[in-house]
Amino acid sequence: MFAISFLLFSAPLSLSAQDRFALVVGIDSYTNISPLRKAVNDARAIATTLQSLGFEVTLATDSTNRDLSATLDRFVHQVTPGSEVIFFFAGHGIEVEKVNYLVAADAEAVTAGERAMLRQYSQNADELLSRLVETGARKILVIIDACRNNPFPRQGTRSPGGERGLAEMASPEGVYLIFSAAPGQTALDVLDASDPDANSVFTRAFLRHLRTPGLELRDLMIDVRSDVRKLAATVSHKQMPETVDRLDGRWVLSMQTATAPAPEPISKNAAAECIALAGSRISDDELYNGEPIGQVVAICAQAASEDKRNAEILHAYARAVDSNDQDELARPIYLAAADLGNSSSMFRYAQLLKWGAGGDVWKPGAFEYFKRAADAGHVNGMVETGFAYQYGEGIAVDYNWAFSYYMLARNAGSAAGANNLGTLYQHGHGTAPDQETAELFYTEAAKADNREGLVNYALLVARKNDADAFEVSGAGEAFVRGLDVRTYGTPPKGLVTYAMEEFQRIRNPMFTAAVRKALAQAGYTAVGPEAVINGGLLEALIAHAGG
Q: Which residues contact 101 (CB under 8 A, 6 or more apart)?
């Protein structure tokens, strides 16, 4: 009924994860009251950011009240005395008789006479805060982005809660409360129908400043309030985040710093030189114009220090550090550039999270940034987002969304998008299996020299019972070209394994002969490790297949 995920992520080892905990909740899928569009996006983005800042993050999305209560029980048990704790909620909230309730996904559409039923479907914010305080945490930050219009129906002139916003809340000692809008105000999900941002107005502003190294929480909120007020004013709306401060001392959320070797004498226009050098990698050891990578890193470090809010410079700096095999240092720099809107940094940061390069593997975070890149127009981001939806990597399987993102990529000229559309049709993912349509997409990808498309086209033809000799001959050539290191370098291990397993399983003598002929024409006849195609294993497989 509901898509629920309780995901626990470890923080990077370089940070004190054992002293920093966060529970992040986002709810969009309300079945009986008005659903939301960006609360889950907000939660995922906040979770990704806090994880990168050293918090051990529990993420819950689209949770029923029962599941949310169980998640809270586990979370408070996990928190250690003296630690730092953050609770973030994005979803519907309602004030009833001066008490604020955070509404779960299974909430019924109660009316004014059924206020007591609210307790079955929501979390009492005061009680939740008390439970966090009881953990003995040294510092607690509670962020409630739930100051939206009352989602419950009116009966005559009455509904079960206040019409606009949440009520004021008292804050115990050691707690800092943030509401996305002041009492009586409503918080905006979007500015207008053309607003492309994936996050609510408050969350996008909060994220923009959350990662600033050394920025104290109170100073951070001065900047956030200003940004939210200005954004809301562009659509003639009043929204000013509200804070209640009972902290003792300073609290810096982002303590990360990106360091680089001290540079040698650097040109006066470091920004332009950094972008030019890092934008054209030519080898593992050198970049544009043969400049050593260490010098490029130094140039970009200076440029970034001079303009910390320039996404293009930060992306170039991250590329230089990345090329210098410093993934752990590159990750937060890519992240900073991504959150300033650089879609290439969004994509690369997502890759690092997916592969666990420079830190832990984190598939939900990878999905979040692949999707942000895709929604910003990054074609490879569209392909990866579709892949995540197709195979459930960091998100629940959804073939309709997979199809949509693959088609977007394909229409933007991506051969990988066309190939992956073929896989949906071939395997019947979200549709009845359709080999003819799959072949059309594989052919399109193969014509663009996409190596997965070449292999998939070849294997599909090999499985056909009515393929003629000319068609099979072409399939043999496509199969070899897809695995040939001279096409695009060494083929991915997964593709080679799949190709060889399917080749052996099919055992089509005509196709085997076509592959053997294509290998000979390409000049690859050796069976030993000197062979170019997968160390000779393909030739050995051909012999084993009885070709």
A: 93, 94, 95, 118, 119, 122, 123, 124, 125, 161
